[in-house]
Amino acid sequence: MALPSPTSTQGRASITTTVFISNLHCPSCIVSIQGALSALHPPPEVVSHSIVSHEVILRHSAQVSVDAILDALELAGFEVHSIFQDSEIGIGVESERRSPEWQNSLEQAVNRWRHSRGHAREDDMQKRKRHVEQCALCRIEEGDVGGSVKVRQESGSSAALTEKEEIKREEDVGEVEMKGDGFVFVDDGAGDGLWRATLAISGMTCASCVASISRVVGELGWVRSVDVNLLTASGSVVFEGKHHAAEVVEVVEDAGFEVTLQSLVEVAKAPVKKSATVPGAERWKATYSIEGMTCSSCVGNVTDAVKGYTWIEHVDVNLVSNSATVTFTGKDHLAEIQEAIEDSGYGATLDTILPIDQQQEVAQERSMAIRIEGMFCHHCPPRIIAALNEIYGDKIECEKPPLNEKTGLLRIKYLPSPPDFTIRHIVDSISAIDAIFKPSIYHPPTLEERAHDMHARERRRILFRLVLSFTIAIPTFILGIVYMSLVPASNRQRRYLMEPMWAGNIPRIQWALFFLSTPVYLFAADTFHVRALKELRAMWRPGSRTPFFQRFYRFGSMNMLMSLGTTIAYFASIVELIRAGLKKSTGSLSDSYFDSVVFLTMFLLIGRFLEAYSKAKTGDAVTSLGKLRPDEAILVGVSGTGDRKISVDLLEIGDVVRVPHGTSPPFDGLIAAGSAKFDESSLTGEARLVNKEPGDTVFSGTINKGGAITVQINTVSGTSMLDQIINVVREGQARRAPVERVADVITSHFVPFVVLVAIVTWVIWLSLGLTGTIPDDWRDKDSGGWELWSLRFAIAVFVVACPCGIGLAAPTALFVGGGLAAKHGILVKGGGEAFQEASSLDCIVFDKTGTLTQGGDPEVTDYEIIDGQGEGVALGMATKLEESSTHPIAKSLVAFCASKVNSESTLISIDEIPGKGLKGVFKPTSETTTAPITALIGNETFMVDHGVVIPASTSTTLNKWKSEGKSVALFAISSTTSSADFILSATFAISDPLRPEAASTISSLHASGIDVWMLSGDNETTARAVGASVGIPSDHVIAGVLPSQKAEKIKYLQRTLPSPRKFGSRGKARATVAMVGDGINDAPALATADVSIAIGSGSDVAVSSASFVLITSDLRSITTLIRLSKKVFRRVKFNFGWALVYNLIAMPVAAGALFAVRTGGGGHVRLDPVWASLAMAMSSLLDARSTSFSVSNFTYRTLSTVSVFLFPNILQILTNTIITVSPNPSQTLPNTRFPALPTTALTSPQAPLPPFPASNQ
């Protein structure tokens, strides 16, 4: 119902009361509430409600008390959260009366406490007070001027909704209150014939009216969006079909409101559906930020959870960056993907969503998000919107979700027109509305920032638990090690600790260890238990897509192994404690694993913390590239205004900025004034300074090493070369290598295998002990029997097994390699697969023009005019023909011919024959003939196809030019007597200089055992001459190849060339072939090759689909690429080998395979669970850190020495540390299941470490 405004004659006879009800959900609740309130005496004059905001507003007599209203609502079964009445001073007064149900509601109490705390802060109160002083609407609403429609909560109040509901409510309120006339709120609707009707609506008094109109209009099937504005009493409806306008008006009138159609316009910028596109069939690529992954088993779990859907095409999960890239069909499946990841026990946040195989329209419009600080009430957003509407009108479009005071984000779309209309004007306008408003450009967190935050949060979680476990480990060490192993048995304090207490044969020291280990198990090791339970719950939950039998042989992760190890040790100790409590006091020690729980947890957390730190440091390549762009720029003033320093976010295309010495351009642009030398090594890897003159392009991220220059910006954020490089590096790091699939298979079965081995180990040792197969002196008499004694081997197996090394073997090396390649100007678009193929190359095929040759500006070095129409006519026609071609040779001919003659020829028609030449028809050049003249220009094959006779002397000249490595072009025209006969009229020799580094690069490739071939569309003589100049044998030169035939030649080489490599070639019987080309003209050949390398792509790094993109045209980058690829995959193989060898050795030793071996002191060799946990931690740590050290220093000669000498010594030290020698049972040592470090390991002579080689740095 509409709520009328009170009149002044009513005075205080009528009161407005606002009640917030937490369980107000549907229209039936409203009926019940109205019935309950109608029983009041006297009944309320008016009752209005809002299901969205969970509020009921009633105007009633002052005779009706608050208690009466509460009693009526509670009797009807409603939970009243808070109630307010308008007072003389206009501040909401809250009743403290609460029902028993409310007092017992924990959730609502917690939400009330959280909300009230947030609003009770003194600084917020002061800000609110200052805001009210400036906001007339708030003063009117809070005062008693004419009464208040509803009393809003202020400081000290609480919300009736949960936090998420409150945010949703604010967004809904903002959506209906902030639609001002003149602004277009862009929706995602699509379809032909979209119209927007603007309505003037009278009779709306509250948000319930707005919701009512929005609901009845929105239910119409052809309506795309409904925007109703309470403040301006208007509505805007976007719908399909102009004929539906009258129906819109009729529906609003039927809802009980008066409406007038103000305007009806067709939406000019409405998106249009493509009839050829099947709805829901579009392909998309989504990137998710994943939280909670710790090992490769987690990667397998996420992959399995997502890939089971039929509409999923490809899934790449990256452990290092904590992200997943999913290619799928149908954008509406986004929520299902996130739900699948979350159901598998991990947190998922959508980072980016991009269409695939869709041509994106080039638009000059910009979409920006502006964060506005200083808004304190719901009147601020419409105030800002109204002000921008008044200033800019339809120059700005507001995108959904609309501005509200909760988020403070204003999303706009506009068409900049510097210097008159830019984002700077919009930001300044917002600041001018009120001094308290502080606008700034908002950037959502990038994938790297999300990963960084996640890594930091994970490290903090682990660090808190590590501090707890370390703190408790100190007294545990004193009690469990010092007093039980080192202090003499006659010591009075030790005897006191060994005395039984409270129950049976339980000594004081065991009670102390129990009390110390319990908080460690519950509050430090909980991270392992919680994640293990999540994994099990995700696998066994109702509706799980994991096949039933697969749940028994593919489950768990490293968290489960850690949880099982600590859980078995803890509860086995409790069982032993209970057994000892049931015995009579004997004065002897009853053994347990309580101290092992503490040290196990501490060492596991140390390993997890160091591993998390190493992973965070591994993926810094993209972050480092992003830091190359400056945060501020010096904007050159116009019309005599001075320069000023502004944020780079406020720049527009066309702005002119000043770049002083030692700084970087904020974005790519053209030099407007001045000249300087630039250091582009950060992008290209080239250390040589590049000279830049006016008109040259400079790139963001490069450093000005000369004087100050001015640059006109021609790109903005997201489109510069640096942004493209960052996107390519990020894309490459997300692509996994085929060898990682091997790791996935191993790790997916690793945990079940370890569990099986641990159970079998325990059963075997227990059986051997109970059957008397092994002597009784192998165990300590007070160790709790064979059951507890045999558990030590099972626990050691659980904690020593480490799939992390297997899972991290490839990702860490590929991440480091991809980042290092970017620093050398090599972009790894193909990711791990490209690295793997490049590491085993057998053959490289080079394109000639523009790859082995410079290809930039070929020159005509020689020419010959043969009898015919004359030099002027021949060169003039040749110029007209070649002007329509973009081939480098054509451009050189145009430049040469235009400089020789100035004759005009009229071209009638022209045809281009790809790979051969051009054929054109000209008007007759003289009055003596009326027949048109046909002319040809192209290669020798083109002339032969048209029957052109080449004289012997000309043939000799052509052969001479070709032997010098020059390309030749021939020009022929039709004879005057017959248009079918052509006469050779001119010949040209074009020289394309070789790249200076071409010969040395080919020589280096030959030296490394790689076969080199060359493809060329040129004639055989020229191609062989070029090949001989750079060191390519003549039988490895394929000439006369058309662009469309290059892919076939690559396939031919793949079929015919044998592979000299057998090991590590993944079973290939053929050679691995790489193609090096320009990335665009050679696209078919690049797509066919196993490894495609696009060279000299410059600023178009995102255009090429090659495996590798070389930013510069320096061929030496290819040798760098191959060396780096080999280094990366040698490291991958080493990591795999180390992880497998570690597990294959450590697990049998932990299971007691060497226990029968006696040492010189009569003890047994075994791996104690505590030291097993340390070995596991060091395994994954050394795997990650050695990768970062090795790959990142691949250019230094000292690496091999460090790898050979340093690493084995580390292993030797670790081996001597973690292998525990059990003492001779004849020697009395109270604590045998956790002995101190062996003296032999500390005192045995060791070979001295070799001297560390001097660094080349």
TrEMBL record:
Q: Which GO terms describe its cellular component?
A: membrane
Membrane-topology annotation of the record: Multi-pass membrane protein
Q: Does the keyword Membrane apply?
A: yes
Keywords per UniProt? ATP-binding, Copper, Ion transport, Magnesium, Membrane, Metal-binding, Nucleotide-binding, Repeat, Translocase, Transmembrane, Transmembrane helix, Transport
Q: Where would you find the membrane-spanning parts of this chain? A: 462-489, 552-572, 592-610, 750-771, 791-816, 1136-1157
Where on the tree of life does the source sit, at the highest rank? Answer: Eukaryota
Q: Which residue intervals define the domain HMA in the entry?
A: 15-81, 195-260, 284-349
Q: Which Gene3D superfamilies match?
A: 3.30.70.100, Calcium-transporting ATPase, cytoplasmic domain N, Calcium-transporting ATPase, cytoplasmic transduction domain A, HAD superfamily/HAD-like
Q: Which Pfam families does the record cross-reference, listed alphabetically?
A: E1-E2_ATPase, HMA, Hydrolase
Which Gene Ontology molecular function entries are recorded, alphabetically?
ATP binding; ATP hydrolysis activity; copper ion binding; P-type divalent copper transporter activity
Where is it located? Endomembrane system; Membrane
Q: Where is composition skewed (Pro residues) in this entry?
A: 1247-1257
The record's listing under PROSITE patterns reads: ATPASE_E1_E2, HMA_1, HMA_2
One of the GO biological process terms:
copper ion homeostasis
Residue ranges of the region described as Disordered: 1230-1257
Q: Does the keyword Transmembrane apply?
A: yes
According to its UniProt record, where is this protein mainly located? membrane
Family statement = Belongs to the cation transport ATPase (P-type) (TC 3.A.3) family. Type IB subfamily.
Q: What is this protein called?
A: Heavy metal translocatin
Q: Give the species.
A: Mytilinidion resinicola
